[in-house]
Amino acid sequence: MFLANSKVFLKRLAMPLAATVLVGACGSDNDNTVAMPTPAPEPAPTEYSYEVTMVNLTHGQPLSPITVALHGDEMLWQIGMPASVALEKLAEGGDNSELLAMEFIVASNSAEGALMPGSSTSVTVTTTSTAATHLSVATMLVNTNDAFSGLTGLELSMLDVDASKTWHLNVYDAGTEANTEAMGTIPGPADSGMGYEQTRDDIDLVAMHPGVVSKDDGLTNSVLTQAHRFDNPSIKLTITRTK
User: Fold this and answer.
1) Apex CA 62: angle with CA 59 and CA 67, to 5°?
2) What gap in Å lies between CA 203 and CA 206, rounded to an integer?
3) What is the DSSP string of 107-157?
4) Quick one: which of 74, 84, 55, 88 has its CA closest to 154?
5) What are phi and psi of 96, to 5 degrees?
6) Dihedral over alpha carbons 54, 99, 195, 151 (to 10 degrees)
7) Is the distance from CB of 138 to CB of 58 less than 8 angstroms?
8) Residue 156 DSSP symbol
């Protein structure tokens, strides 16, 4: 009888003790809560910026709006290979819209107007894309059938921030339109003729340009004069990495 009553007494005594232990355990958990660290903000993307300055060294050849493009290791043209339609449109009519819209172009910019002989202009192109590893520049000599100049596939790793490099550029023939110099075929102010023509009637290969003949030198049907002739180099190009 005493043993049975003792068991009941001990059981009743244990219940408040267990509750006390449970409450104490809960309080211990709250005191040991560890705050989660705040994630560090993602770093701002690196900006790459290049200033391209072009000087027209010719006597009578305005240059079409300068095209500047950042891209991968592609080339806008290659000597001995056919010109793309985008390059053809620039070389025949000074229209750079399709060149700027080419699929592999990462970032681009264009001057607003023509660059007159003896003048200079600058264009800046900027990107945060690490795919922009190369740079190209292109322009048309507008008092010609399909002469253009520029530089393509320049590897940008050679330029540190605030570093500049200068080139003196020759003139190329797109090989898409015969150099007749005839009335109606020159888009520049010497003729105000037709620009791009879909039919290709020349060698269909990019090559060094042979130069303008002009009516003063015996090409009787030419609308050009000696003032429109050009010697190589015809353009001074300076590229500066600013960021």
Assistant:
1) 130
2) 8
3) EEEE-SS-B-TT-EEEEEEEE--TT--EEEEEEEBSSSSSEEEEEEEEEGG
4) 74
5) -100, 10
6) 40
7) no
8) G
pLDDT digits (tens, 9 = 90+) for 187-219: 999 999 999 999 999 999 999 999 999 999 999
Helix (H) or strand (E) holding 92: helix 85-93
Q: Which residue has the tokens 């900027």?
A: 126
DSSP bridge partners of 151: 137
CA distance 220 to 54: 33
The whole-angstrom distance between residue 84's C-alpha and the CA centroid of its chain comes to 17
For residue 145, give the CATH number of its domain: 2.60.40
How many residues appear in the chain?
A: 243
Q: Per-residue pLDDT tens for 55-109?
A: 999 999 999 999 999 999 999 999 999 999 999 999 999 999 999 999 999 999 9
Is residue 16 one of the residues assigned to a domain?
A: no
Residue 51 lies in a domain: no
Q: Which residues pair with 236 in a beta bridge?
A: 55, 168
Look at the chain and report how many structural domains it folds into: 1
